[in-house]
Sequence to fold (425 residues):
Amino acid sequence: MTFLEIDLSLLFVVAVILIWFMIAYQFVLTVFGYINYVKSLGRKRVIDGMSFDYPTCTILIPAHNEEKVIGATIASMLRLEYPEEKLSVLVINDGSTDSTRDIILEASYRDGRVRLFDVPAGEGGRGKSRALNLAMSEVKSEVIAIYDADNTPDAHALRYLVAQLLENKELGAALGKFRTVNKNVNLLTRFINIETLSFQSMLQAGRWQMHNIATLPGTNFVIWTWLIRQLNGWDEQALTEDSELSIRIYQEGYKIKFVPYAITYEQEPQTWGVWVRQRTRWVRGNNYVLGKFLKHIREFRSKRLMFDVLYTLSLYYVFFVAIVISDLLFIVSAANLVAISLPGPYTFVWIMAFFLFLGETMLAISYDGEDRMKHIPVLVLMYFTYCQVWIYIVIKALWIEYIKKEKRTWDKTVRFDVDATTAVR
Fold:
């Protein structure tokens, strides 16, 4: 055995360990996600049978050039099962140059609960966090709900979320589930649908059940108004303002609960170009949050929170390292450039890891009735294509962030017209 063969054999073992650790831990989270799913069904029935004195609530909807979707979003907010006298919808026109403002104004004329907030001239287009912070001057309610401009929540979603805050004084916020409304448009949206559902079943439901930890998404969540003021609003430097805010809520001593039966529907990217820009922003945002909190990680009062933050924020890079090493070794081995001579059942272990990925993903999406046999070929293709593209995403984000050192600017996700035949409820 040559020195090169030993080094590559060790790299192979490292890749196997990393991939198996990730898949095994995800499997544990999937099991806990199933427990959460079963418990949530019973909890939903209890909530349905209870009556609450709901607090006043303002729904904040940041909108920057959202003419394709904002009308349907406002209409869905007005259909929410929430006391009319206690609900207002504040739509934030963030420097739109299309007909977004006119659509909001028209809706406000029809229903007094809808209000328009114009971001001051010269301040528009600076990101979601900036828009939300400016609009807070108009908020007088006890609770705030955040929805993206393309969201159409179920009628009872807001009621389910606010009920959690009333029932549990340890909660600072509560989040629901988001579903992909355009999941049947093409192969990319099918990949995203599987990814987002499994993410929520594992890293939201599973983490909440296992650690009492969940992370705010960018939409479909509620938070006490006094708490967001106490935290001085959203971090305007954060491209993923939701994950950054989540950590500060936990540091403040409050919890965030995942409520899987509070559902909203949203658009996902339908082209690879839009998807790449969105995910690059996510990775850059993750880099910022990791850099902001890593130096204070030992000061976290909760060791579970410390582990969860480290694991969740490093997930991109653990996955990146494992995939890059395994791909390189596969290429050099297939080309007979080197031989992996370290003894051990590594091929069997690798194959088992792949089948475990398939199994746990099918289990995770079964909670939403998506565990159909037709998804298995999509999952196999997803493993060898979609998952591999993350290598490019991580490299691109690192290049932009640390080599080119580009300023962090908000890149709004492009909206698409949703055809009635492809929209799924």
About this structure: DSSP finds 13 helices and eight strands in the chain. The beta strands are 57-63, 87-93, 114-118, 143-146, 152-153, 171-180, 221-224, 255-266. The first strand starts at residue 57 and ends at 63. Confidence is low (pLDDT under 50) at residues 1-6.
